[in-house]
Design a protein that fits this description.
Length: 63
């Protein structure tokens, strides 16, 4: 069902966007025109940065 797919995509977009705003990675004004691909990339980049910092912290503690 095309309508259900569009609705599901919109819900995912809203969820991701709202969490990016909470994290301070995008502003409220970015929500209106935000593309799901860009939102996903922003979130992925953030997760990579957190993983890198976590690994650095862990290796410092192991020394």
């Amino acid at each position: 069902d095309v309508k259900a797919t569009i609705s599901k995509d919109l819900l995912i977009k809203q969820f991701v966007a709202q969490n990016l705003v909470k994290l301070g990675l995008i502003g409220e004004e970015d929500l209106v025109n935000a593309d799901l691909t860009i939102l996903a990339q922003t979130l992925y980049t953030f997760i990579e940065e957190v993983e890198t910092k976590a690994q650095e912290t862990l290796s410092r503690r192991q020394k």
